[in-house]
Specification:
CATH class: Alpha Beta
Radius of gyration: 15 Å
Helix content: 10-25%
Structural class: alpha/beta
CATH architecture: 3-Layer(bba) Sandwich
CATH superfamily: D-tyrosyl-tRNA(Tyr) deacylase
Number of strands: 8
Strand content: 35-45%
Order of helices and strands: EEEHEEHEHEE
Distance between the termini: 11 Å
C-alpha cells in the first residue's frame, strides 16, 4: 500500500462535474494498493500502522509554528481518494506500466475497508472520492506539505 499525504486548507473531489466530497483544513490522502496486497492485508499490523501514521503524523504547526501537531490534535478533516497510479512503473519507455498495481476487484475491496476504518477514527470531517471513477481534485496544498508512505517501509 502506498499513500501520498497532502496537508490542505481545503479539498474537493468531483465526478462528472458533481462534488462527491469536500473537506476543510486537514489531510488529503491518495491511496493505492499493490499487487502483493490481498484481502488478508486488511488484518495485518501494517494496515493499522498506516492508519495510525496518517492520523498522528505531526505535520500541522503548533503555536510556535513548528510541525508538532497531528490531524488528531487539531481535529482536522480527512479525505481519501483511490489512486492506482501510485504503482506506476516508468523504468522503460515513456508510457507507465501499472503491472505492480493491485487488481481492481481486490483494490476496491481494500479501499472500501480502509475508508471504513479511517472514517471511524477520523477526528473531524471525512470525505472520499469514488473508486474507479474519473475524478477531478481541487485542493489547496498548505505549505506545501506532501509526505509519501509505503507499507513496505513501516
Amino acid at each position: 500500500m502506498r499513500v501520498v499525504i497532502q496537508r490542505v486548507s481545503d479539498a474537493r473531489v468531483a465526478v462528472s462535474g458533481k462534488t462527491v466530497g469536500e473537506i476543510g483544513t486537514g489531510l488529503l490522502v491518495l491511496v493505492g494498493f499493490g499487487k502483493t496486497d490481498d484481502a488478508d492485508f486488511a488484518n495485518a499490523p501494517k494496515w493499522r500502522k498506516m492508519l495510525d501514521k496518517i492520523l498522528n503524523l505531526r505535520v500541522f504547526p503548533d503555536d510556535l509554528g513548528k510541525l508538532n501537531m497531528s490531524l488528531a490534535d487539531i481535529r482536522g478533516d480527512l479525505m481519501l481518494v483511490s489512486q492506482f497510479t501510485l504503482y506506476a512503473d516508468c523504468k522503460k519507455g515513456r508510457r507507465p506500466s501499472f503491472t505492480d498495481a493491485c487488481h481492481p476487484y481486490v483494490a476496491e475491496s481494500l479501499f472500501d475497508r480502509f475508508t471504513a476504518d479511517a472514517e471511524k477514527l477520523a477526528p473531524g470531517g471525512f470525505a472520499t472520492g469514488r473508486f474507479g471513477a474519473e475524478m477531478d481534485l481541487d485542493f489547496t496544498n498548505w505549505g506545501p506539505v506532501t509526505i509519501i508512505l509505503d507499507s513496505d517501509d513501516l
